[in-house]
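Exercise 7b. C-alpha cells:
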C-alpha cells in the first residue's frame, strides 16, 4: 500500500488519506479515506473497470464525494452503510438518489430505502472488486464489516484502540463479544483495519495490532467483556434523536432543509439593506419580519412589516397582495428566513430575497432599528 500524495489531496480539509493498493487477487483497488471530524468514510473502487462504492458517507461531505469520484474517474454503483448510525447524519439516501447508486445495508437495517439487503457471507461485486460482508452485531444489530482482500472496513465494531459502544438502540455487548472474538479477530492479523470513527487523527490499524494492544480486546472472557461494556457510562451522542430519525427513515435533517432552501433563493447583504434604508425607507423593498410577534415588538428593522413564519402561508395573500413586490425576509439568525423565502418563491413571490444574516447580527453590527410603535402587516 502506498500513499498517493497528489490529486485529490488538493481538496484540502477535512484531511483525506489516499491509498492505492494491490489486493492480491489481481484487482487493483482505488481506496480513499475521507475524514469529517471523528467520522471516517471511504470511496473504494475497481481501478480496471472504474466501478466504485462509497461506504458510510456523511451528509456534510456530499460535494466532496462527487468531486472525489469524478477526480478518480469512478462511477459509483453502491453506497454501503456498515450500520444504522446514531451519532451523525448519513448521506446514503441522498447520494444514492444523486448518483443513481444502490444503497447496501444489512437485512436488519430499519431504513426502508435500502436497495440491496445483505447478510453474513455474501459478496458485493463492484467491477472486478469483491467486497465480502461479515455480519458483526453488537454496536447495532445491523452492523457489518466489509472485507477487501487486504483490509477490512470495520464500521463501529472495531475502532483503533477501542470498540463501538453497545448502549444505543439495538446494541448488545454479548453480540459484540461474539462478533469480535469469533469472527473479526479470526480474519488474520495482517489485515488492515479501517474504522468508521477515530477521534485522534489516526487512519488505520491492523487486526494483529488491535489484538495485542486494544484495551477492550484484553477482556477475552464474555462475562468480563460484557461487564466492561456496561460500565462505560458514556454520554449520549449530541444529535441522537435527529440522527436516528433521519438515518432510519430517510427523512431530512433541519440543516438539509435549510441548505436546500438556500439553493433555491438569493440573498441580500446587511450592508446593502442598510444603504437602501438610508437612501429612503428601503426603496421598493418590503422588509418582512417573520419572527414571533413579541420579538418583533421588542425591536425590528426600520419600517418592517410583520407576519410570523407560522402564519405566513395563511396571511400572505391578504397582507401582501402584489406578487411582484420585492420582499426582503429576515428572522433572528437567518435560518427561518431562508425557509420562508423559499416558501414565498414557491408561492409565486418571485422577487423575494432573504437577509444574509439575521436581526441578531444586524443589531450586533450597530445598524438602525425601530424599537416600538410597530408597523404591522
Ligand atoms: Fe455507530
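Sequence design result:
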Amino acid at each position: 500500500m502506498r500513499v498517493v500524495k497528489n490529486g485529490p489531496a488538493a481538496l484540502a480539509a477535512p484531511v483525506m488519506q489516499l491509498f492505492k493498493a494491490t489486493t492480491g487477487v489481481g484487482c487493483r483497488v482505488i481506496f480513499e479515506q475521507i475524514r469529517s471530524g471523528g467520522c471516517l468514510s471511504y470511496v473504494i473502487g475497481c481501478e480496471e473497470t472504474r466501478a466504485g462504492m462509497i461506504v458510510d458517507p456523511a451528509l456534510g461531505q456530499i460535494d466532496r464525494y462527487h468531486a472525489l469520484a469524478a477526480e478518480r474517474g469512478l462511477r459509483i454503483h453502491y453506497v454501503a452503510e456498515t450500520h444504522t448510525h446514531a451519532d451523525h447524519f448519513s448521506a446514503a439516501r441522498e447520494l444514492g438518489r444523486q448518483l443513481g447508486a444502490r444503497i447496501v445495508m444489512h437485512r436488519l437495517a430499519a431504513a426502508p430505502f435500502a436497495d440491496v439487503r445483505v447478510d453474513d457471507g455474501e459478496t458485493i461485486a463492484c467491477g472486478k472488486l469483491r467486497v465480502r460482508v461479515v455480519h458483526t452485531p453488537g454496536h447495532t444489530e445491523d452492523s457489518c464489516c466489509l472485507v477487501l482482500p487486504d483490509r477490512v472496513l470495520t464500521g463501529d465494531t472495531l475502532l483503533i484502540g477501542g470498540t463501538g459502544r453497545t448502549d444505543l438502540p439495538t446494541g448488545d455487548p454479548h453480540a459484540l463479544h461474539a462478533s469480535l472474538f469469533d469472527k473479526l479477530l479470526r480474519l488474520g492479523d495482517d489485515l488492515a483495519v479501517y474504522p468508521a470513527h477515530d477521534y485522534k487523527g489516526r487512519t488505520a490499524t491492523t487486526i494483529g495490532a488491535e489484538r495485542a494492544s486494544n484495551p477492550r480486546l484484553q477482556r477475552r472472557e464474555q462475562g468480563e467483556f460484557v461487564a466492561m461494556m456496561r460500565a462505560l457510562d458514556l454520554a449520549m451522542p449530541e444529535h441522537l434523536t435527529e440522527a436516528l430519525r433521519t438515518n432510519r427513515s430517510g427523512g431530512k435533517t433541519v440543516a438539509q432543509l435549510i441548505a436546500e432552501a438556500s439553493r433555491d433563493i438569493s440573498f441580500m447583504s446587511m450592508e446593502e439593506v442598510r444603504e437602501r434604508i438610508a437612501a429612503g425607507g428601503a426603496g421598493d423593498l418590503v422588509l418582512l419580519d417573520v419572527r414571533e410577534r413579541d420579538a418583533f415588538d421588542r425591536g425590528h428593522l426600520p419600517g418592517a412589516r410583520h407576519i410570523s413564519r407560522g402564519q405566513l402561508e395563511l396571511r400572505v395573500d391578504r397582507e401582501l397582495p402584489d406578487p411582484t413586490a420585492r420582499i426582503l425576509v429576515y428572522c433572528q439568525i437567518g435560518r427561518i428566513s431562508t425557509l420562508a423565502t423559499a416558501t414565498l418563491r414557491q408561492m409565486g413571490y418571485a422577487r423575494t430575497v432573504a437577509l444574509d444574516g439575521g436581526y441578531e447580527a444586524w443589531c450586533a453590527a450597530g445598524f438602525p432599528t425601530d424599537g416600538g410603535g410597530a408597523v404591522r402587516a
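Instructor comment: The first strand starts at residue 2 and ends at 3. Residues 2-252 form a domain with the Metallo-beta-lactamase; Chain A fold (CATH 3.60.15.10).
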